[in-house]
Design brief:
The complex is a heterodimer. In chain A, 36% of the residues lie in helices and 29% in strands. Chain A has 4 helices and 7 strands; from the N terminus they run αβαββββββαα. The longest helix of chain A has 30 residues, at 3-32. The N and C termini of chain A lie far apart (74 Å). Chain B folds into 4 domains: 1-165, Four Helix Bundle (Hemerythrin (Met), subunit A); 175-336 and 343-413, no CATH class; 425-516 and 621-626, no CATH class; 518-617. In chain B, 63% of the residues lie in helices and 12% in strands. Chain B is globular, with a radius of gyration of 27 Å. The chains are: A alpha+beta, B alpha+beta. The interface between A and B is large, with 55 and 63 residues.
């Protein structure tokens, strides 16, 4: 093979690889991207039952109760709208009433059936999506993690 | 006083680093030996100062000095001593200090042991190292000073996040950082080579041990992190494609590619520009990893509370380092002339294929990790890209590479023939088919991926052994001669063989745990029995207990198989006294065939507990594979040619003429 042909071979192989990777990525994006919605979004945008998404907000005080068979039912609120959530499984250690939560799953008959509830390593950490959803609903009470994460820690519940 | 000494040492180190950036670089340009020589003492003193600073912070933690903010926020007198010490780097400021400690350690190692490096190259390498250090010192002193005092010292501290009070996580960050920062050496060598305008076999031999060491540490660090997630998070999984995991995985992919391409530079004097680019990319991804973990821009299970000012600073640093180095690359890379000719079917061709796939995989992971950020930045909505995406992209990319991995080492350098190589793999093909059939027969209802994974692991394992057998001409010559060939095999070749076998073992574990995991979530009362994958888990109830700084609720599961008792598992839920935060400790029994894994959850009204039981087939093989890979790397690191030092540069020019050579390109 001449040098020029060899270079062409490499270019072709690289392009084929790049093409394959792009096809894989586009295909995977199509099926596997999960949008984030707040309870208000769900009511206002009339999210359908066909798509998985992430729901974020605060776990409403006094809403957590155990149904039979390892199922927990609670409500997630952005302090404007509220959605009932049903989750089968072990809740993460840092799951508490009044704390931020992100759950993944789909809607069924007006109830959000979660198959995953995300845990955080650090209690003072508020998921940015939840913080923003709360800000959008206009009920944000300045519990700003960026500025007084540390001070909140000291005067918190413990 | 201790805090002030530590702070002062940090400031002094910054000033010395500034000197180390400027004088040796100018000296190397002008051929001024005295100025170049400044680099060595500067690097050593810098390391001494940072070690002093780090020692001061450790002293503050050990003595629980609560007049220092960092100690207040992350320590407590009741904490066991090992976690007081680990607390030094289990937080933002302290981990940065650890980062620069390792950076200066590597810099001083080059200064002390780099006697066989040409003075100009050495001066430039150390100068670039100091540039990185300056960036990090400024970052610490301006936004994240670990020695900041509090006005009114509290009586006790706020304790370390309980999840981090764990032995695995105490040693995970230092390992990971040794890996991340190790790539800074490859980066410094790459930048120095770009400035010099010369890359040759000798250069590749100097870079290789650093890359190899960094790769070993990073592999170990990632494996440790995944092991920690496995037993501490209690989710039964070991890899979640979480942004922070991806952050450590991307430099690993780029570093693995770099490791392979540097061999091509050394042996064939080609792929130079590409290797330099990989060195830049590997370190840039390490920096990006730090940025992702430290700035809190992504929602992740690992993210800690953060300060946006830091994010902006790291972003600035990233732009300067990545942008600057890529600009330099674009300007200087055309000067790097390769002498080797390149045939597609050859060892170097196979290594290039490895590189292309590794780079594509790293790019895909990068895209999946950053896409949510980009979309959000342009107002496209909040999304998350989770494990299904990465599995759908990453696994198909890896499959052809692993298939090719068995073939590559059989090809000779320069020009090879594919047919004889493939015909040597006939036996491997037979064994692979048998393994796939066995996997299908045992796990008929399992996913197709399980059968494919079993096939790939067997193919790679058998192919690697056949390559080794071919190298020592087993059964072709008398056994005695084969053994003597075995003894004479260079350690670098051993390292390759062992590391590739480790990959095969790891794939076995990934396949088993990924494809055939059995999970069962239920409510159990004392006396209830649940059967998971043929194992009967009988719940004997839970009792309360006390740990050093936490209280325990510990459940007891008696596990038996066909009436024969196997083991008693005692998963725990710990509530830490100071923070009142709960953590989960899974009860795990490891067997070669798989792990029995039990987690106990909340107590219901009627005395019943939510429990989660798993059988994770073959999962221990994955960590065993990682350990084998690291041992392969370490063995390769002890290769004779690294120990006795690199050969002299091939061209006849003395070191003094190097600047002219650079100028003449």
């Amino acid at each position: 093979m001449k040098r020029k042909h060899k270079r062409l071979t490499f270019v072709v192989i690289s392009l084929a690889l790049l093409g394959a990777a792009s096809a894989l990525i586009m295909n995977a994006f199509e099926d596997n991207i999960v949008f984030f919605h707040s309870p208000t979004d769900i009511i206002e945008k009339k999210i359908g039952e066909d798509r998985r998404f992430r729901l974020g907000g605060l776990v409403e005080e006094g809403s957590v109760r155990k149904a039979g068979g390892a199922v927990t039912i609670f409500r997630v609120t952005d302090l404007k709208e509220t959605i009932a959530v049903s989750y089968k499984g072990l809740l993460p250690d840092l799951f508490r009433e009044g704390q931020g939560v992100v759950a993944e799953g789909r809607l069924k008959g007006g109830i959000f059936i979660a198959d995953e509830v995300l845990a955080k390593h650090d209690e003072t950490y508020m998921p940015p999506e939840v913080a923003e959803a709360l800000k959008k609903s206009g009920k944000w009470q300045g519990q700003d993690k960026d500025k007084n994460g540390a001070s909140k820690k000291s005067k918190g519940a413990y | 006083m201790t805090a002030e000494i530590g702070h002062f040492a940090l400031v002094l180190a910054l000033l010395i680093a500034v000197v180390q950036v400027t004088l040796p670089m100018i000296g190397a340009h002008r051929g001024n030996a005295a100025w170049m020589a400044v680099a060595k003492p500067a690097a050593l003193v810098q390391f001494g100062l940072i070690a002093l600073s780090f020692g001061c912070l450790m002293q503050l933690y050990v003595t629980s000095d609560f007049s220092v903010l960092n100690v207040v926020q992350n320590s407590h007198t009741a904490k066991p001593m090992i976690y007081k010490i680990a607390g030094v780097w289990a937080n933002h400021e302290g981990s940065l200090l650890l980062w620069v400690l390792i950076l200066t350690l590597f810099g001083s190692a080059v200064a002390a042991f780099g006697a066989n490096l040409p003075p100009a190259l050495k001066a430039r390498v150390l100068s670039v190292q100091a540039m990185i250090a300056v960036g990090f010192y400024l970052f610490m002193l301006l936004t994240s000073n670990p020695f900041e005092r509090v006005e009114v010292p509290p009586i006790n501290g706020q304790d370390l996040n309980p999840l981090l009070q764990d032995f695995g996580l105490a040693i995970h960050p230092p390992m990971l950082y040794l890996g991340y920062v190790g790539f800074s050496m490859a980066f410094s060598f790459a930048i120095a080579a770009l400035i010099e305008g010369r890359v040759d076999a000798a250069w590749a031999r100097w870079v290789r041990p650093w890359t190899l060491a960094a790769w070993c540490f990073l592999t170990g660090g990632i494996a440790l992190g995944s092991w920690w997630a496995y037993y501490e998070l209690g989710w039964g999984g070991w890899w979640f494609w979480d942004p922070v995991e991806n952050a450590s995985f991307m430099p690993w992919l780029a570093g693995t590619a770099l490791l392979h391409s540097s061999t091509v530079v050394e042996k064939r004097d080609t792929l130079k520009g590409w290797t330099i680019l990989l060195a830049i990319v590997a370190f840039s991804l390490s920096l990006l990893g730090t940025f992702l973990v430290r700035s809190g821009v992504l929602t992740s299970v690992h993210t800690f509370a953060t300060d946006p000012a830091r994010g902006v600073f790291i972003l600035g640093l990233l732009i300067v380092v990545i942008g600057g180095s890529l600009a330099l690359f674009a300007w200087r890379a055309p000067a790097l002339v390769s002498t080797g000719v390149f045939q597609p079917i050859s060892r170097e061709g196979a290594l290039l294929l490895n590189n292309l796939i590794m780079a594509t995989a790293a790019a895909a992971v990068l895209l999946g990790t950053l896409y949510p950020l980009l979309l959000d930045a342009i107002g496209g909505g909040k999304i998350s890209v989770g494990a299904p995406f990465f599995n759908a992209v990453f696994i198909p990319l890896m499959m052809p590479m692993i298939a090719a991995m068995a073939v590559g080492p059989m090809l000779s350098w320069k020009r090879a023939d594919l047919i004889p190589a493939l015909s040597r793999l006939k036996a491997a093909a037979v064994v692979t088919a048998a393994a796939m059939f066995a996997a299908w027969a045992i796990m008929t209802d399992g996913p197709v991926m399980g059968v494919i994974g079993a096939g790939l692991a067997t193919w790679l394992f058998a192919g690697t052994l056949i390559e080794l057998a071919g190298r020592i001409r087993l059964f072709k010559v008398p056994l005695r001669e084969s053994l003597s060939r075995l003894r004479r095999t260079p350690r670098a070749s051993w390292g390759m063989t062992i590391a590739h076998l480790g990959v095969a073992v790891a794939i076995t574990g990934i396949t088993g745990a990924g494809s055939w995991q059995v999970e069962s979530i239920q409510v159990m009362k004392p006396g209830d029995t649940v059967t998971v994958a043929g194992y009967d888990f009988t719940f004997d109830g839970a009792r309360a207990g006390q740990g050093p700084n936490y209280s325990i609720i510990s459940g007891t599961f008696r596990v038996s198989r066909n009436g024969e008792p196997v083991v008693t598992l005692e998963p725990e839920k710990r509530i830490y006294n100071v923070s009142k935060r709960p953590t989960t400790e899974a009860g795990i029994h490891t067997m070669i065939s798989g792990d029995l894994y039990a987690v106990i959850g909340d107590k219901g009204e009627d005395g019943a507990y939510v429990t989660r039981l798993y059988f994770n087939p073959l999962v221990v093989w994955m960590w065993a594979g990682a350990i084998i890979m690291v041992s392969g790397g370490l063995i390769s690191l002890t290769d004779r040619r690294h120990r006795i030092g690199a050969p002299a540069r091939r061209r006849a020019q003395g070191p003094a003429s190097v600047p002219q050579a650079a100028a003449a390109e």
